[in-house]
Amino acid sequence: MQKLIVVFSLLLFVVLASYIPAVIHEIPKTWDEEKLATMELPLADSTTKVKHYPADQYYQLPEMSVYKTYPVYIAGKEPPGYYDWLRQQKPEMIFDASKLKTEEDWIKAGEHVFDMPIAFTVVDSAYANDFITRSKLWKEMGFSINKDGIVPGLLYVVRKKGIVEVGRDGCGGCHTRTMPDGSFLKGAQGNFAFAWDRAIDNIIDKQNKIPDSIRNKKTSALNRVLFAAPWVKQESQTYSQSLDADGRTMESLATYPGLMFRHGSVIGNFPTLIPDLFNIQQRKYLDRTGLVQNRDIGDLMRYAALNQGLDYLNDYNGFSPRPRPKDPAKGDLQRYSDEQLYALAKFIYSLKPLANPNPPPVKEIERGRIIFQQQKCGNCHTPPYYSSGQLTPALGFTPSDDLLMQYDIKDTCIGTDPGLALYTRRGTGFYKIPSLIGAWNRTGFLHSGYVKTLEEMFDKARLNEDYVPKGYKPAHVKTMAVKGHLFGLDLNEKDKKALIAFIKSL
User: Fold this and answer.
1) Are 22 and 102 in contact (CB under 8 A)?
2) Comparing C-alpha atoms, which of 471, 485, 479 is closest to residue 417?
3) φ, ψ for residue 173, nearest 5 deg
4) Residue 94 exposed, middle or buried by CB count within 10 Å (0-12, 13-18, 19+)
5) What sign has the CA pseudo-torsion 425, 430, 435, 440?
6) Fewer Cβ within 10 Å of end Cβ, the chain: N or C?
7) Could you report how far apart the first and last alpha carbons of the chain are, in Å?
8) For residue range 400-449, what is the model confidence (pLDDT) as tens digits?
9) What are residue 176's phi and psi, to 5 degrees?
């Protein structure tokens, strides 16, 4: 009898468990105009007002489909018969919100959104010929290709049977890093050389004898969409918009993997160092210039939507980088669904930094920890996330009392180059204090990557006008001082080494 009761109880538990509902996820509305209006900081030029794309038109845009993707191999490394096999694959959509029940389901679906490209080129015979040239240049330029010959940042997609496309510009393109062992680390600072790859586009066009007039027209249109900020009256804007195809190639090749002329920056002067996405939930602001507040998961969703194409439709006192579609439902512009963006944000929240697999000696780290405390580095790079999360005013910008009251600002300028913060369409007049966690796994420091390593960061010689940065230097400049962030420059070499060791241990 007792056995029967136990068996019955177990059966009852199983039956009842099957009726326990999955965790209910309340999906925020992405294009909430009231929240959009309060999410962003004002621009440094407060007379320039930003109007986002209207919500009624936003929700008419076709929703993006998330397809299964396939790796892109450097020419000659692909498996035998790979391209014929790809052409036999049926389109397979891999995001279905109705099937997402658990937190793990949402995170995994968000990873698919993270990987999904948003710009596509058909792989035809012409592309195949160009791809051989591109692969050769990738090798010569030292692109980060993994151990199996897989190229980060690019993916093949089959959206129609028989047609293979190479896709790019997904979130994972910028935020996936090829590690020294050949593995990929999602969420880290990416090290695919996007700026160089854009330069390769022009190199291939020249080899294919595309007329200069066509190459330059394409470059001019691209420069306007990506970088124009007509309200900024500064020479960097004039220079950026005057670049022809060959000039754009020259400036692109002055960058390095992990640094790019991100849309909204300025080509030829103020690139953006790609950040990692770890501990995003604890960050108060998003973007190098703190453009967007990070108040909740809805803000991260809106930020992702803006940066994957919707900020091109912003209106800046009558200027839009890209014309708004006359009929949103029939244009070529797509949007993520709210469910896709929610899943993406969940995946980003799940990302954790990787511990340094080769940490410095323990004694060195402990000595560096003491120096970190003595130098009061924690005032800005506050544990446990090694950032206070605050904003600091850029050189030449004086925040108003209203700004100081409304936002979390450490009203101390550290004198770094103000270009991104003042002379771009992302310019708020501020920089966000970055976290030091994972600094060991980054290439480049300062917001535009002027120095390449922590050792260079603490080298006082960088302050000299005849200095040649090991990081980024505009192609049209021979020498330049890398000014600002004077902290630690007067330490002796032994103490600098210890401080760097501590930072590399985080």
Assistant:
1) yes
2) 485
3) -60, -40
4) middle
5) positive
6) N
7) 60
8) 999 999 999 999 999 999 999 999 999 999 999 999 999 999 999 999 99
9) -130, 125
- Look at residues 199, 276, 287 and name the one whose alpha carbon lies nearest to residue 244: 199
Which residue segments constitute the domains of the chain, with CATH numbers given? Answer: 362-389+433-504 (1.10.760.10)
The residue count for the chain: 506
Instruction: Identify any residues that bridge with 122 across adjacent strands, giving them in sequence order.
Output: 165
The candidate with the shortest Cα–Cα distance to 242, out of 268, 211, 279, is 268
Contact 416, 395 (CB under 8 A): yes
Please name the residues in contact with 14: beta carbons below 8 A apart, sequence gap of 6 or more: none
If you ran DSSP here, which 8-state letter would residue 182 be given? S
Q: Is 111 exposed, middle or buried (0-12, 13-18, 19+ CB in 10 A)?
A: buried
Burial class for 341, CB neighbours closer than 10 Å (0-12, 13-18, 19+): buried
Cα–Cα distance for residue pair 72/80, rounded to 1 Å: 14
The letter for the amino acid at 51 is K
Q: Enumerate residues 6+ apart whose C-beta is below 8 A from 391.
A: 285, 290, 407, 408, 409, 410, 428, 430, 431, 432, 433
Q: What pTM value is reported for the model?
A: 0.93
Q: What are phi and psi of 255, to 5 degrees?
A: -85, -170
User: What whole-number distance in Å separates Cα of residue 426 and Cα of residue 167?
Assistant: 26
> At residue 268, what is the residue type?
G
* Cα–Cα distances in angstroms (integers) from residue 405 to residues 41, 173, 272, 430, in the given order: 13, 37, 28, 15
Joined tokens for residue 115: 């990987």
- Write down the number of H helices and E strands in the chain: 18, 14
Name the amino acid, one letter, at 191. N
Of the candidates 118, 126, 129, 173, the residue with the CA atom closest to the CA atom of residue 151 = 173
Sign of CA dihedral 227, 391, 174, 438: positive
Q: Strand runs (DSSP E) across 249-348, as ranges?
A: 259-260, 272-273, 285-286, 292-293, 315-316
Cα–Cα dist 431/217, whole Å: 34
Output b/e per residue, 50-73; b: 16+ Cβ within 10 A: bebbeeeebbebeebebbbbbbbb
How far apart, in whole angstroms, are the C-alpha atoms of residue 229 and residue 317? 11
- What pLDDT is stored for residue 23 in this prediction? 57
Measure the CA–CA gap between 252 and 245, rounded to whole angstroms. Answer: 10
Contact 148, 250 (CB under 8 A): no
Overall average pLDDT of the 380-389 stretch: 96
3-state secondary structure of 26: coil
Radius of gyration over every alpha carbon of the chain, rounded to an integer in angstroms = 24
107 in Cβ contact with 81 (< 8 Å): no
